[in-house]
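Lab notebook page, bench 4
Experiment: in silico fold of construct C2
Operator: M.H.
Input chain length: 123 residues
Purpose: comparison with the prior construct
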Amino acid sequence: MKVKVKMNKSVLQKLSNAQITALEQTAEAVKTDVIASQVMPFDTGTMQNDSTSIDTSKSKQGEVAISVDTPYARRLYFHPEYNFRQDKNPNAKGRWFDDWIDGDKKDFAIKAFKKIYKRLTGV
């Protein structure tokens, strides 16, 4: 038996680019869902609205990062025992990303990636 395979490089490149775009948009979807879930401590909104960003510099290697760049974010994140005000964000707590890592929303990123990738590629 003889098999001949011809690869369509332009389609493969399109699929590869769609993976990168879908990864970046998935990170944005997670960030948006975290904010919409109102789990971040909120006083003036600096940490949630101004200092939460997505680093896509390594997205071609399959890595994105959501970071909160304030001097106090680390302290608040790793001390869930603090009594967080809940007048502006009723679900405010420490370790606010845990629901998306291993909690109730752990499948959120996977489902979002699949949906975005499908929309981008039509596959």
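Observations: The chain has a mean pLDDT of 95. The beta strands are 52-55, 65-68.
Next step: discuss at group meeting.
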